[in-house]
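Hi! If you just cloned this repository, the fastest way to understand the data is to look at a raw example. We've pasted two of them here, unedited. The first protein comes first, obviously.
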Amino acid sequence: VPYTPGGGTDLMARALAQRLTENMGQSFVVENRAGAGGIVGSEVVARAAPDGYTMVIGTNTHASNMSLYRKSAYDLARDFTPVSFLGSTPVLLAVTPALRVTSVQELITLARAQPGRLNYASGGIGSSAHLTTELFKTVAGVDLVHITYKGAGGGLNEVIGGQIQLMFSSLTSLAPHVAS
């Protein structure tokens, strides 16, 4: 998993590893290799011997990195073979309670009144959260400051604690916090 533990991709990989272990009678281990928007972990798999058991959980970031970076240690089409679509998860907008906004429109109004004063978290440049927020900024006409983390978990903790104002993240990552 080319991301930090605890996020939606990690949880999906762990469920898959458990089923593969049960069905194939051999252990499958999830190894998290976070960094550079998924590039670090993906590169490890691209360089591994093609044994049929070393896999990477690719996300939309896995594909978008090919157009975001001039050089890559791997070629998406040459070095990887798609095996299966595992699923998708909705993305939610999390806003720190400290902002005291109760709607997206209130958030937009506040951000427009304070250009460049609100921060947003992401799991790195080119990550889903980064690209989603950049689209949001363009559509809403707001100026937000990007703060990168090694993974979604660190950013989410900062949003909950009020140090960062907002973050787009997967339902899987946010569900426990929404419920509480």
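Ok, and the second one:
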Amino acid sequence: MDLVRGIAGKARNGLSRFRPSPEPDIFHLFFSGKHNEVAETFSTQSPDSWSVEDLHCVVASLATLGQDTSSVLARIPAPLTHEEFEAELLSQLRMEDAYSTNGLLSQPRYLHKSLLAAALGLRAGKGSFVETGTYTGESLFKISSLFEHLWTVEASPVLHEAARQLFTGKGITNITQSLGDSRELLANLDSETLNGAVVFLDAHYSTGITSREYGSCPVIEEIHIILDRSSEALIVVDDLRTMNGKDGYPTLKDLFSALPNTLRVQVAFDQLIIGKAWLQDLV
């Protein structure tokens, strides 16, 4: 037990890059679209102890307001190296194992889910990462040094521009951004690209400042587009707990019924994993 506590304590310390600060609640201000309050909080309080997630929200709010983001960008650390990535992933998986009692379809308490998708892709030998739902760009930015090229698409012009300023301001050149429908991006990627990619499907409307211009949750269509063009793509579908048939979302039955019965699938950490990758390969 002491050993588990010791490992978990180290893991908790390693999560500072991902854990939001309790005060001020920058994330919820940002997600509610209260960008002026975010900017005011940043200008009046010391951000030295803020999490990196907070700082990414500040960048997005300042970009939305047309204000200079350089002082905040300077505080955001570079993308994860392979060594940092492995350490962060192992820390978070250990935290989930030691402290979480959540069910299969519950939001993980400690695990940053795009890191799990990236890890599955790397273990499967994928050299590219495709993401639907850019949001602030934080998740893709952190893993940008791990893949040769990354693609992302966002339906919200505001979030698209905020992520663009993040990538440009931090000198990231291997990310291709699109503004619009996730299905269009996927249809425009050739079979060779999809075969060599892990595809993280997260273009779901989540209230707040997120957009549903192209539908609340086009995940079944996204999967069909990928499978029609690729036999080797690794697909990770986020937020399975939200697939309840309400507000434009499919049910879990709808989702699983749409998949060919020859596919290799797993469910873990509120995600559906489709393709030749296994969770036990991560540890």
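That's it. A detail worth noticing about the second one: Residues 82-99 form the longest helix (18 residues).
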